[in-house]
Amino acid sequence: MAILKVIEVLSNSETSWEDATRKAVKEASKTVKNIRSVYVKEQSAIVNGENVTEFRVNLKITFEVN
């Protein structure tokens, strides 16, 4: 039986929500091993004038505990 743990992570990107998600997983994988999945809980963006300047995601990352 596998034991799984979930952590919540926030990330941002100037490009897209997908890029923010990839950046979060890449950074988390430096210290968290056996990542199994990621759930995008919330998405938001920062707007400056008429332009979206930053994409933000709130993620839940699931990983297996050894």
Write the layout of secondary structure elements.
Layout: E1 3-13, H1 17-28, E2 35-48, E3 51-65
Antiparallel strand pairs: 1-3, 2-3
Question: What are the main properties of this structure?
Answer:
66 residues, alpha+beta, Dodecin subunit-like, 18% helix, elongated
Shape: elongated
Structural class determined from secondary elements:
alpha+beta
Question: How many beta-strand elements?
Answer: 3
Strand order of the largest sheet: 1-3-2
Overall mean pLDDT: 96
CATH superfamily: Flavin-binding protein dodecin
Q: What is the third-level CATH name, the topology?
A: Dodecin subunit-like
The CATH architecture name reads 2-Layer Sandwich
Tell me roughly what share of residues is in helical segments. Answer: 10-25%
| Count of helix runs | 1
What does this structure look like?
By secondary structure, the chain is of the alpha+beta class. The protein has one domain: 2-Layer Sandwich (Dodecin subunit-like), CATH 3.30.1660.10. Helix content is 18%, strand content 61%. It has a 3-stranded antiparallel β-sheet with strand order 1-3-2. It is elongated and about 50 Å long.
Short description:
This protein is α+β, with helices and mostly antiparallel strands and 66 residues long. Helices cover 18% and strands 61% of the residues.
